[in-house]
Amino acid sequence: MISTIQRKRCREDNSEQVVKEVRGALQRHPYPLLRTLFVEYEGGVVILRGKLPNYYHKQLAQEAVRGIDGVTHVVNEVEVSLPHPR
Predict the structure, then answer these.
(1) CA-to-CA dists, residue 79 to 8, 13, 16, 52, 53, angstroms
(2) pLDDT per position as a tens digit, 70-83
(3) Is residue 68's pLDDT more than 50?
(4) Over the stretch 2-36, which tens digit does the pLDDT of each residue have?
């Protein structure tokens, strides 16, 4: 029989693996700006935070992590920060 501590440790190990895969997906993405995002994960939910220059990049980030095993939902809290004209 699996103890409560073992189940918690298994969930934590899985969480670490999912975060590692999410970060890896962002690191490997052809748009390097996605590499600057912060990732949180709990219970199947990935939260993306940070700033990107446009909504296209924000959507790319969300799609890059959506299909990863263990990810059931993506909360995209990325801010779109348009560059100031010079």
Answers:
(1) 33, 30, 25, 6, 8
(2) 999 999 999 998 76
(3) yes
(4) 445 444 444 455 889 999 999 999 999 999 999 99
Phi, psi for 9 (deg, rounded to 5): -65, -40
The answer to whether 69 touches 22, Cβ cutoff 8 Å, is: no
Give burial (CB, 10 Å; 0-12/13-18/19+) of 34: buried
Burial bucket for residue 37 (CB in 10 Å: 0-12, 13-18, 19+): buried
- Determine the average pLDDT of the residues in 31-53: 95
How many angstroms separate the most distant Cα atoms in the chain?
Answer: 65
